[in-house]
Structure formats: C-alpha cells, structure tokens
Amino acid sequence: MGRIVITCYRPKKGKKTTLEELTNEHYGILREEGLVTNRTPIIMKSVDGCIIEVFEWKSKDSIDQAHSNPKIQKLWERYGEACDFEKPINIAEFENIFSEFEPFN
Fold first, then answer.
1. Can you spell out the DSSP letters for the chain?
2. What is the pTM of this model?
3. pLDDT tens-place string over residues 17-51
4. Which among 100, 95, 97, 12 has a CA at the least distance from the CA of 52?
C-alpha cells in the first residue's frame, strides 16, 4: 500500500534557485529508482518561500529502501546543502482550514 507524505523545504540563504532545480528533478529520481508511484506529485510554495511537496511512496518498504540507496542518499545530501527540512506545523498557511499556496509544478 502506498504512503503519501508531505515534505517542506525551507531554502537556505542564497539557495532558492538550487532548491527549485533540485525539487524539479526529485520525483523523477525517486521514480527511476522504483520507489514511488506514478501519481503526479503536487508541489507548491508558501508565502515565506518554503516549497511543499506531496507525493506517494510505493510502500513503507520503499521508504526504508531509500535510506540505503546510494543515489537517494546523494540526492538527500544535496537537499541538505540547499534547504532545511521544515515541519508543516511551522508553515503559516497550514494554520488555516483551507490552506492556499502558490503552485510550483
């Protein structure tokens, strides 16, 4: 059974463009590695510049596999250089019953 996740990336100073480029290639790499479903991810931006991505892993096992996959580990290292991972609760829009965001993809 698939696992839908919400991930939030807050760009580090001077890394906004790098983060956007990385986010554009993220799902494709996960798909190439056979870890995610074909469901199109939803990617959006908050008012303060966070990028929020909603996507579906194939299974809990796929998530575990990502943690030992060298290609995915390299990808996550690049994310670590470009952003800080944020909890959705820290994104102002999530305080609203109907959270509105700017589309990214």
1. --EEEEEEEEEPTT-HHHHHHHHHHHHHHHHHTT-B-SSPPEEEE-TTS-EEEEEEES-HHHHHHHTT-HHHHHHHHHHHHHEEEE-GGGSGGGGSSS---EE--
2. 0.90
3. 999 999 999 999 999 999 999 999 999 999 999 99
4. 100
